[in-house]
């Protein structure tokens, strides 16, 4: 008799706070943020392109790191990841890479001015004056490694090769605060690219920068030199069909049934974010298990939305509380948030918001109060709910933090 498959628990399937598992990874067939077809295929092509470096950007919670992880696995490529923080600088970044690749016995790290090609004379470029250790992950027996007086970037590329690692990943790059570090990383991409063309017998090591941003230049600047060597891939929110497929697979793995009507609600509340799909899926699955019912019903969904609202960062609750009026019959700020949260578009002109008001609430003799409310919602005093771009008379509005909209959708249902 064949052994029964291990019964999974919700936490093994829905993972909102970490990378998704291979079973739960949904292929990304949608266009990238610039409309280029097939975001996953674009990433594959970029990684295969010798000498080309990669910059991935997009909203938080859209699955950038998971996409890279499974594309690398499909291509049978190993990667090493550095998590960037507010304290990350260029020298420390390279030091972290070396320590992940080498069991360091003794390291002396100095900073000198360096005028070699591709490095700004104004930048302080790190050197290792003495370094020895055993290469981690080297094929076969342990490999001893020692350098005397060598630029750290040379050490990094050599260790990547000796460790059989093809991708150096700088994740959460939006946390890097200093402009000098961003400039030096842009130059690092150029140097990786140059090295790939210097010797075709050497492996094609790449640097992949991942960050939360609306565009590539917001992360690394607009230097034409690094841009022409780098594929900029904007990872969008997931389309509804991919969110639906992700959720359906998860509940199937748990042996649970979800009616079509409730699945439609799941997709709506997720708003294109795998993070929210996993968060809601996890809480629904837990609620269903507690009730002893394998068929997910409306009661489990409502309980899950309440729990999801509690688990989202408290700053959203505080910001929405600041934005809402405490009294009054019209309450334009509250109504505007509700209208925009439930609309399918992601940015609006003032006229489009007026039209939404008329369609959903009714006409008004004067819309001045609506435009005053819009002006309030972009300020810190009222929670910075919206972001405004453009010039007066042609403003466009969008949610300042893209996660606020699914939060508003969830909490609106919870309040009703």
From TrEMBL:
Residues covered by the AAA+ ATPase domain: 50-239
SUPFAM superfamilies: P-loop containing nucleoside triphosphate hydrolases (SSF52540)
InterPro entries the record matches: AAA+_ATPase (IPR003593), AAA_16 (IPR041664), P-loop_NTPase (IPR027417)
The protein, known as: AAA+ ATPase domain-containing protein
Species of origin: Gordonia iterans
């Amino acid at each position: 008799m064949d052994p029964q498959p291990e019964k999974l628990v919700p936490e093994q399937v829905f993972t909102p706070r970490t990378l998704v598992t291979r079973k739960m990874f949904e292929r990304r067939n949608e266009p990238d943020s610039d409309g280029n077809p097939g975001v996953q295929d674009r990433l594959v092509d970029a990684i295969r392109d010798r000498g080309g470096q990669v910059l991935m950007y997009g909203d938080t919670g859209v699955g950038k790191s998971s996409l890279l992880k499974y594309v690398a696995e499909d291509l049978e490529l190993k990667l090493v990841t550095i998590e960037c923080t507010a304290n990350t600088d260029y020298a420390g970044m390279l030091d972290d890479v070396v320590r992940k690749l080498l069991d360091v016995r003794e390291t002396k790290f100095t900073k000198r001015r360096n005028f070699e090609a591709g490095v700004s004379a104004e930048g302080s470029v790190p050197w290792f004056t003495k370094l020895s250790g055993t290469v981690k992950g080297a094929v076969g027996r342990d490999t001893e490694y020692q350098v005397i007086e060598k630029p750290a970037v040379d050490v990094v590329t050599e260790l990547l090769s000796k460790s059989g690692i093809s991708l150096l990943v700088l994740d959460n790059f939006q946390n890097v605060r200093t402009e000098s570090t961003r400039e030096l990383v842009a130059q690092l991409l150029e140097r990786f690219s140059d090295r790939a063309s210097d010797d075709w017998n050497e492996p094609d090591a790449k640097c992949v920068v991942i960050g939360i941003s609306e565009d590539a230049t917001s992360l690394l600047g607009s230097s034409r030199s690094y841009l022409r060597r780098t594929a900029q891939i904007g990872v969008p929110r997931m389309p509804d069909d991919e969110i639906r497929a992700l959720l359906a697979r998860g509940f199937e793995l748990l042996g649970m049934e979800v009616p079509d009507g409730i699945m439609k609600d799941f997709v709506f509340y997720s708003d294109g974010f795998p993070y929210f799909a996993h968060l809601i899926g996890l809480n629904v699955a837990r609620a269903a298990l507690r009730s002893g019912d394998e068929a997910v019903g409306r009661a489990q969904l409502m309980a899950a939305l309440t729990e999801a609202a509690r688990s989202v960062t408290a700053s959203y609750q505080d910001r929405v509380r600041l934005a809402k009026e405490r009294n009054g019959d019209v309450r334009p700020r509250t109504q505007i948030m509700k209208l925009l949260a439930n609309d399918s578009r992601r940015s609006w002109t003032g006229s489009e918001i007026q039209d939404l008001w008329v369609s959903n609430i009714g006409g008004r003799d004067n819309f001045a109060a609506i435009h005053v409310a819009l002006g309030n919602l972009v300020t810190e005093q009222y929670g910075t709910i919206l972001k405004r771009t453009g010039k007066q008379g042609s403003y466009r509005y969008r949610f300042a933090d893209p996660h606020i909209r699914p939060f508003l959708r969830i909490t609106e249902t919870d309040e009703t």
